[in-house]
Amino acid sequence: MRAISRKMADGVKDFMQLQTMIGEVLAASGHPGRQSATPDRYGYDFDDARFFMGVYLQKPNIIVFEMHQAFMLGNIGALAKGEIRDGSRWVRELDIQSPDLDFFGRNRFGQMACIDRFLSENLRYISKLERSIAKPRNIDIDILREFDRDP
Question: What distance separates the 2 farthest-apart alpha carbons in the chain?
Fold first, then answer.
């Protein structure tokens, strides 16, 4: 354990501002969230708690997007984005300290646009995964035709 510095108060204020931004981005995108706080994370559950977007307190520089019960995606093989954790959650991270992102060099609107882009990319990616999984594969066409004939 280390001593607490004078930066603590500003850090807490900035952390809460980040949470407010995430909540505003979710609401503006048509996905109003419900605040969700546990001892290790703080953020928002949304779309009937199917998704979480927020920050794990051990990594406050990382905005996390999670899909709960990702096992419902089935055997999706290698992922182009994100990863499956604990066998049940699809997780993708955005490091706001990345020099390539320059999150802290942006104004409030630029930061919110960055969060919005992260949200949109994740929702589009999940939608694409679900559509590809929903396509019938290796199904005998004759069985489908018989199924259609049944009253």
Answer: 74
- The H or E element containing residue 149 is helix 141-149
Distance from C-alpha of 137 to C-alpha of 11, rounded to nearest angstrom: 51
3-state secondary structure of 95: strand
Q: Which CATH code for domain 8-149?
A: 3.30.1460
C-alpha torsion 112→113→119→123, nearest 10: 150
pLDDT in tens, 5-16: 888 889 999 999
Q: Which residues does 138 contact at the CB level (< 8 Å), separation at least 6?
A: none
pTM of the predicted protein model: 0.80
Query: On the CB side of 131, how many CA atoms lie within 13 Å of its CA?
Result: 6
How far is 74 from 46, CA to CA, in rounded Å? 22
Both ends of the chain: CA-CA distance in Å?
A: 70
- Domain borders along the chain are 8-149
